[in-house]
Amino acid sequence: MKPIKIYILEDEIIIQQLLKETLETLAYNVCGTQTNAEIALHEIEVLQPDIVFLDIKVEGSKTGIWLGNQLEMPIIYLSAFSNVKTFIETIEIKPVSFLGKPFNIKELFIALQLALNVVALKKELLIKACN
Hints:
alpha/beta, Rossmann fold, 5 strands, 19% strand, globular
């Protein structure tokens, strides 16, 4: 089985690097990182990650919420903002999890497990559809 590929959209470089290093320590392949949602969309189309971490407020005119609306893969939202309006906007996209910043490794692990369950289910459905 091929390794799970993860993409990160995060405009705070320190958080982006910490998340990347933590995921790699947990033996995940971080296939790309970006600070701008529009650029990230093009990279995601090429890289085809299995799971995407999206910060909500990022560089440029588009947000992580905008990007989430463009994607059909498991999304884990990252945000330091916990207001109700932002949370409702993210829930409408049906992310597999929401990770507040700062996060700890336990919260990250739980969010990843939820996303991995969705990845496994999609692969199982694809295999059944091909049979």
